[in-house]
Design brief:
The complex is a heterodimer of chains A (114) and B (115).
Chain A lengths: L4 E3 L2 E4 L5 E6 L6 E8 L3 E9 L2 E5 L6 E5 L5 E5 L8 E8 L9 E2 L3 E5 L1
Parallel strand pairs in A: 2-11
Antiparallel strand pairs in A: 1-3, 3-8, 4-5, 4-9, 5-6, 7-8, 9-10, 9-11
Chain B lengths: L3 E4 L2 E5 L4 E7 L6 E7 L6 E7 L4 E4 L2 E6 L4 E6 L8 E8 L9 E3 L3 E6 L1
Parallel strand pairs in B: 2-11
Antiparallel strand pairs in B: 1-3, 3-8, 4-5, 4-9, 6-7, 7-8, 9-10, 9-11
The chains are: A mainly beta (114), B mainly beta (115).
Chain lengths: 114, 115
């Protein structure tokens, strides 16, 4: 079955702009988590959605937001982009509440902020 | 808060040798410990995981051991092959968020297997 699909794979933005990233989870998976990966900070948890509700949130500013749709697809948005937002943004899905921490990651969306 | 430390940051071995990567976690209430492999241009891939009620788990050439008393867990790869070359991450669940997608990750180990 298809894995986790993230679009776009690469994008370049300038400071002050906003960006929206999309994630389609594995069919049947209801939980979607987002992570930011940078060389300096490693993998950091952004937020998690389950059945269209945000269940967890990491320590990121309010410029980072997300949502989940009824078909479990998820989007994350970063507003007023800063240079430090350049990173690989990873989406992961998991099958159910009991195995919500068993994550399958997508290939990521690489964001470059100039 | 919860913290996971991973060592070494880089590891180079000859093909056929074993590789061991170690992680230490800070909160004794963590109960789920996965290991991920990330190849260039790809997302992390779950390769093995262990829960706190088990001391060891093995899957072909890969094994993970957990020492709850010392709060550390290790990844063991035997008979390494060039295709094992990648970055490996350990992670731990966060107490209070155990059945969620919120994990805390180690900083990663770049494993190079020389033919």
């Amino acid at each position: 079955k298809a894995g986790v699909t993230q679009t776009p794979r690469y994008l370049i933005k300038t400071r002050g702009q906003q960006v929206t990233l999309s994630c389609s989870p594995i069919s049947g998976h209801r939980s979607v988590s987002w992570y930011q990966q940078t060389p300096g900070q490693g993998l950091q948890f952004l937020f998690e959605y389950f059945s269209e509700t945000q269940r967890n949130k990491g320590n990121f500013p309010g410029r980072f937001s997300g949502r989940q749709f009824s078909n479990s697809r998820s989007e994350m948005n970063v507003s007023t982009l800063e240079l430090g937002d350049s990173a690989l943004y990873l989406c992961a899905s998991s099958p159910d509440r009991e195995r919500a921490n068993v994550l399958t990651f997508g290939a990521g969306s690489r964001l470059t902020v100039l | 808060g919860e913290n996971v430390e991973q060592h070494p940051s880089t590891l180079s071995v000859q093909e056929g040798d074993s590789a061991v990567i170690k992680c230490t976690y800070s909160d004794s209430a963590s109960n789920y410990f996965p290991w991920y492999k990330q190849e260039l241009g790809k997302g992390p891939q779950l390769i093995i995981d262990i829960r706190s009620n088990v001391g060891e788990k093995k899957d072909q050439r890969i094994a993970v051991t957990l020492n709850k008393t010392a709060k550390h867990f290790s990844l063991h790869i035997t008979e390494t092959q060039p295709e094992d070359s990648a970055v490996y991450f350990c992670a731990a669940s966060i107490p209070g968020s155990s059945n969620t997608g919120k994990l805390i990750f180690g900083q990663g180990t770049t494993l190079q297997v020389k033919p």
